[in-house]
From TrEMBL:
It comes from Stegastes partitus (bicolor damselfish). This is S-adenosylmethionine-dependent nucleotide dehydratase RSAD2. Residues 61-281 form the Radical SAM core domain. It holds the Pfam family Radical_SAM. The gene is rsad2. Its cofactor is [4Fe-4S] cluster. One of its GO terms (biological process) is innate immune response. Keywords: 4Fe-4S, Antiviral defense, Endoplasmic reticulum, Immunity, Innate immunity, Iron, Iron-sulfur, Membrane, Metal-binding, S-adenosyl-L-methionine. NCBIfam families: viperin, viperin_w_prok. InterPro entries: Aldolase_TIM, Elp3/MiaA/NifB-like_rSAM, RSAD2, RSAD2/Viperin_antiviral, rSAM, rSAM_sf. Belongs to the radical SAM superfamily. RSAD2 family. PANTHER family: RADICAL S-ADENOSYL METHIONINE DOMAIN-CONTAINING PROTEIN 2, S-ADENOSYLMETHIONINE-DEPENDENT NUCLEOTIDE DEHYDRATASE RSAD2. Its main location: endoplasmic reticulum. It is found in: Endoplasmic reticulum membrane.
Length: 353
């Protein structure tokens, strides 16, 4: 068909339909580009949305890797600086305590440390033994440990429960019996040190790693403990700078007044310098100590020490670990900085028993 033979009207229609076609193609391309872009950004958003809960869970949620369960506040000693005092006599029923321990294990707990008060006091250590056995045998926790003043431990306990225990820490602030008496680290006139040495032998005999905790305060600040610590050869010697906690050992509502025990950072450093030859020494200044422990009280509430007192969360038995732990005040970075994660299963320690 020749253009000259086409009527102007038809020619106009042809032009309009061609332009229409070009625009239609153009718009369809634009639509597919924007749809693609939208799809792309939507999938990027959804990918971000998919990954965000995990990422933020990893980043924000604290894992209760290592937990200190102060299941009782009662004690037979009267250490004048004590920062976990007998404000209640409550202890959970065993099955409830086990339920809480299982919740912690399901949330990532690897190490449990039983503390107090004096953990061997309740039911003469049987309650503690049953929890230790449950944590090792049923929950298969890599590390189960206890901190005790050592005065209530009997050999029978090791025979029954020793297999399930990785580490036993005994607190000893002085190798001078009179100083222990002055501090209140004693029951009546009984020797604290005799117990310490006896337990050291049992730990060797029943294959439990032996540890020592010492609180450095105005009464023992001048002491040199090198010889005795080297002889006792603990896997770790934790050396704490005496810490004040409002409502526990300082302030109005407190059951102890520990101000007279407090030492300066410089005094603490001098003590550390004097013992620099002791390789198992692990120092813990007030700064390192304050927020680097996950502490559960007798109701299984996390205790937040950020404000210099122990503010409780709700119980993990009521709201679960994830919700309660948000109120723990736990500083995970400081936990790692103070060496909170170490070789804590006795199976990995390669000890000479
Ligand atoms: C509260 S006690 C409970 C366990 C046990 N009754 C004992 O004394 O080992 C746990 C640890 O905290 C330490 N401790 C107590 N009061 C302290 C304080 N004011 N500053 C630093 N550590 C303290 C104890 O010496 C012990 O090693
Ligand atoms: S620090 Fe002393 S008073 Fe406090 S719980 Fe331990 S043994 Fe008892």
């Amino acid at each position: 068909m020749q253009l000259s033979s086409v009527s102007p009207k038809l020619l106009l229609q042809l032009c309009i339909s061609t332009i229409h076609c070009i625009f239609a193609r153009f718009f369809s391309k634009v639509c597919s580009w924007t749809a693609g872009a939208r799809r792309g950004s939507a999938s990027a958003v959804s990918a971000a949305a998919d990954s965000k809960p995990n990422r933020s869970e990893d980043q924000d949620a604290t894992t209760p890797t290592s937990v200190n369960y102060h299941f009782t506040r009662k004690c037979n000693y009267k250490c004048g600086f004590c920062f976990h005092t007998a404000k209640t006599s409550f202890v959970l029923p065993l099955e409830e305590a086990k339920r809480g321990l299982k919740l912690l294990k399901d949330s990532g707990m690897e190490k449990i440390n039983f503390s107090g008060g004096e953990p061997f006091l309740h039911e003469k250590g049987d309650f503690l033994g049953k929890m230790v056995q449950f944590c090792k045998q049923d929950l298969q926790l890599p590390s189960v440990s206890i901190v005790s003043n050592g005065s209530m431990i009997k050999e029978k306990w090791f025979q029954k429960y020793g297999d399930y225990l990785d580490i036993l820490a005994i607190s000893c602030d002085s190798f001078d019996e009179d100083t222990n008496q002055l501090i209140g680290r004693a029951q009546g006139k009984k020797s604290h040190l005799d117990n310490l040495y006896k337990i050291r032998t049992w730990c060797q005999q029943y294959k439990v790693a032996f540890k020592i905790n010492s609180v450095i305060n105005t009464f023992n600040i001048e002491e040199d403990m090198t010889e005795q610590i080297v002889e006792l050869n603990p896997v770790r010697w934790k050396v704490f700078q005496c810490l004040l906690i409002d409502g526990e050992n300082a302030g109005e509502a407190a059951l102890r007044e520990a101000e007279r025990f407090v030492i300066s950072d410089q005094q603490f450093q001098e003590f550390l310098d004097r013992h620099s030859g002791v390789s198992c020494l692990v120092p813990e200044s007030n700064e390192k100590m304050r927020n680097s422990y996950l502490i559960l009280d007798e109701y299984m509430r996390f205790l937040d020490c950020r404000e210099g007192r122990k503010d409780p969360s709700k119980s993990i038995l009521d709201v679960g670990v994830k919700e309660a732990i948000c109120f723990s005040g736990f500083d995970e970075k400081m936990f790692f900085k103070r060496g909170g994660k170490y070789l804590w299963s006795k199976a990995d320690m390669k000890l000479e028993w």
